[in-house]
Amino acid sequence: MAGNLPLREILSLGVFFLSLTALILLQPPQVKVSELKGVGKLYKVCGTLIPLKSLQKGCIYKLVDETGEIKAISFSGSCEPGYACLYGRIDEYRGEKELVILAVD
């Protein structure tokens, strides 16, 4: 029941769907890892995904390209390594910048 969802979860889902809609409509710029800046901004970035931790629903990765690395979080799918181009939103968690993966190209 929706009445039982905490406000934080409802807001998180709302932000996710707004970000996904913006992703589809705006086609964010493709950048290198070292150019990822600005909490809330959408980007496309390509690199090697190295799984760090499997989640109940998703995975925490290290995304690496020739300019640097960043933690990347997926809230769906399995935890598999490889090269990928990702669409994501920059977020900050416990003082560290991370890429929340919204889609894979």
Written overview of the protein:
The chain is an alpha/beta fold. Helix content is 19%, strand content 50%. It has a single domain (2-104), classed as OB fold (Dihydrolipoamide Acetyltransferase, E2P) (Beta Barrel), CATH 2.40.50. The longest helix is centred in the first third of the chain and has 20 residues, at 7-26. The chain starts with 6 loop residues before the first helix and ends with a strand. The mean pLDDT is 86.
Mean pLDDT across residues: 86
Second-tier CATH architecture: Beta Barrel
Total strands:
6
The separation of the N and C termini measures 33 Å
Number of helices: 1
Most strands sheet: 5 strands, mixed, barrel
- Helical amount: 10-25%
Shape: globular
Low-confidence stretches: none
| Count of distinct structural domains | 1
The CATH superfamily name is Nucleic acid-binding proteins
The CATH topology name reads OB fold (Dihydrolipoamide Acetyltransferase, E2P)
Summarize the structure.
With 105 residues, the chain is α/β, with parallel strands linked by helices. It has one helix at residues 7-26; strands spanning 30-31, 42-55, 58-65, 68-74, 82-93, 96-104.
